[in-house]
Amino acid sequence: MSFVLPELPYIKNGLEPHISDETVNFHYGAHHKTYVTNLNNLVKGTENEHKTIEEIIKTTTGPVFNNAAQCWNHTFYWHSLSPNGGGDPDGAIRDAINKNWGSVVSFKEEFSQAATGQFGSGWAWLVLKKDGTLAITTTSNAATPITTDDKPLLTCDVWEHAYYIDYRNARRKYIEAFWNVVNWKFANENLAKSS
């Protein structure tokens, strides 16, 4: 079994003007694609060759883990965005956010602070905890919540390659733009599957 670069759930310029076609071309077409290529090369002829990507993430370390987790994280990230996204959440995710943070505004502020404050490369996540509450977490490099009991609902990639073309080193501006394309429908679907 070989891993393939999954199709984007929208056209490459679909997130403009918030995330440019050029950024998506490099981020998806170069970075994400390279992780897939590397993973295939690393697992070929090994005991990992016929495992699912989730099984590989949960049972490996080093380069195999890094490339598998980056493949998974990036696919999850692309679905966390939508050309029809932004605005305020509705449904169960809105109710859960309001229960945990008091308001969507407070949640966005805390999530933005976590994403901005993540030192170096990594990810900011909205997750469902084992006790049924929501939480904001961050992970470094390729680390991912799927190696824990947390269920990821939404993520924001804060590696520089996610924003440098559009925003240079202004991570906060990129995170502000993220809220214009955030896919609340995807978060609601993940919450329904995880609850």
UniProtKB/TrEMBL annotation:
The lineage of its organism: Eukaryota, Amoebozoa, Evosea, Eumycetozoa, Dictyostelia. SUPFAM superfamilies: Fe,Mn superoxide dismutase (SOD), C-terminal domain, Fe,Mn superoxide dismutase (SOD), N-terminal domain. InterPro entries: Mn/Fe_SOD, Mn/Fe_SOD_BS, Mn/Fe_SOD_C, Mn/Fe_SOD_N, Mn/Fe_SOD_N_sf, SOD_C_sf. This is Superoxide dismutase. It catalyses: 2 superoxide + 2 H(+) = H2O2 + O2. Belongs to the iron/manganese superoxide dismutase family. Residues 89-189 form the Manganese/iron superoxide dismutase C-terminal domain. It is an enzyme of class 1 (oxidoreductase). GO terms for cellular component: cytoplasm. Destroys radicals which are normally produced within the cells and which are toxic to biological systems.
